[in-house]
Specification:
By secondary structure, the protein is an alpha+beta fold. The chain folds into three domains: 1-51, no CATH class; 75-186, Trna Endonuclease, Chain: A, domain 1 (3-Layer(aba) Sandwich), CATH 3.40.1350; 191-339, no CATH class. It is 28% helix and 25% strand. The protein is built from seven helices and 16 strands. The protein has helices at 8-20, 32-50, 53-72, 126-139, 174-179, 236-248, 290-302, and strands spanning 77-80, 96-99, 105-113, 122-125, 143-149, 154-158, 164-165, 169-172, 190-193, 197-203, 221-228, 231-232, 252-260, 266-274, 285-289, 336-339. The strands form four sheets. It has a five-stranded mixed beta sheet. A five-stranded antiparallel beta sheet has the order 12-11-10-14-13, with helices on one face. A three-stranded antiparallel beta sheet has the order 4-8-7. Helix 3 crosses helix 7 and helix 6 crosses helix 7. The radius of gyration is 25 Å and the shape is globular. The two termini are 34 Å apart.
């Protein structure tokens, strides 16, 4: 699913200009004083936003959700619901409207929740939830709350009717959110494959590759091998998928490791990814969901090492970031097990 482009510099800037500046004078649209005041307001507002880390994280997670769902290529329509003017009493407009593959229309409010303690519940103010529900009732669509549990790089999509409600807040605990997760409705599923996944960068034997006395070596990569469970992946699509699993999945990394030939020249630099806990008799291990793998890769593009926001990156082709598993994918070299997990409401 591709994003429909809009001319933000032309139409959105004019709409904002009219919204921020009261019209006065004989020619209000072209009044130079009004234009100067508008640019000053924009500069001040942008400065406040850029200096509010909570605002940046909230907007980044909304963009993450939007691109992630688009990358699944399962929903038929994804639209920002809370853009443009809206008139009504006692309402709050949710972030997105989605038409699923089963033609179900959903309203989705996206929230970011960060906590180092899994026992800390996600909280939503009752007043905000009431207004969201009022809007959903008026337009005749079910309301869902998408929560990004940032500490665990996990998305859940939940029915707010299942929240535990008090006088001030509606709460959702992580364990309950996982059990009652509706992410399957957006096309999400969990992936498993054989281990380890290995990336071998084999040196060009015609170029210098000798390790010096300080343990350093300059070398040129001659070719790259990608392996799954000790087997070389020959298909390009499968190899690209394996690399995305390596850098977006949950397996532990070890490396780089050096391999040498019989003359003690550097032969290859090896990167290994494998699960922390293994069940050898099972024959495969879970490496992550489509949503977690996409989120990890998007985080690498938009977050600094200290966790602060570096970018609110927009992607024209989000599927280039996600796992992008073709519907008819089959590979003996990279066997996949896909688990579609349904919510348990009992």
């Amino acid at each position: 699913m591709k994003r429909i482009h809009r001319d933000y510099t032309k139409f959105e800037s004019l709409t904002l200009f009219c919204a921020l500046q009261p019209q006065a004078g004989e020619d209000p649209l072209r009044d130079p004083t009004r234009r100067k005041s508008f640019l000053a307001q924009i500069d001040a507002g942008l400065d406040r936003a850029l200096n509010s880390e909570s605002t940046l994280h909230g907007l980044r997670v909304q963009a993450l959700f939007e691109h992630m769902v688009a990358s699944f290529r399962s929903v038929k329509l994804l639209k920002q619901e809370d853009s443009g003017e809206c008139y009504g009493d006692g309402i709050r407009v949710p972030d997105y409207m989605v038409v699923t593959a089963n033609d179900e229309c959903l309203l989705i409010e996206v929230k970011n929740h960060y906590s180092t303690d899994a026992a800390d519940p996600f909280r939503l103010r009752q007043e905000d939830l009431r207004k969201l529900r009022t809007y959903a009732t008026l337009v005749g669509m079910p309301l869902r709350i998408a929560v990004y549990w940032a500490r665990w790089n996990t998305w859940t999509l939940n029915d707010p009717a299942r929240f535990n409600e008090s006088s001030r807040f509606a709460e959702l605990r992580f364990s309950q959110a996982l059990k009652e997760n509706f992410m399957i409705d957006l096309g999400d599923y969990t992936i498993a494959t054989r281990y380890p996944l290995v990336l071998r960068m084999i040196t060009d034997a015609s170029k210098p590759r000798r390790v010096d006395a300080d343990g350093r070596a300059k070398f040129t990569v001659g070719r790259v091998e990608v392996l799954c469970g000790g087997r070389v992946i020959r298909d390009k699509t499968a190899a690209n998928l394996a690399i995305r699993f390596m850098f977006g999945g949950t397996w532990d990394y070890s490396g780089p490791h050096a391999e040498f030939d019989l003359e003690d020249n550097l032969y290859a630099v090896v990167h290994v990814f494998e699960p922390k806990q293994k069940t050898p008799e099972q024959g495969f291990e879970w490496i992550g969901s489509l949503s977690s793998i996409f989120s990890q890769r998007y985080n690498m593009l938009t977050l600094r090492a200290d966790g602060s926001v570096a970018s609110l990156k927009r992607l024209d082709d989000p599927w280039r970031v996600g796992p992008m598993i073709p519907d008819n994918f089959r590979s003996e070299d990279l066997p996949l097990w896909c688990f579609r997990i349904r919510p348990n409401l009992d």
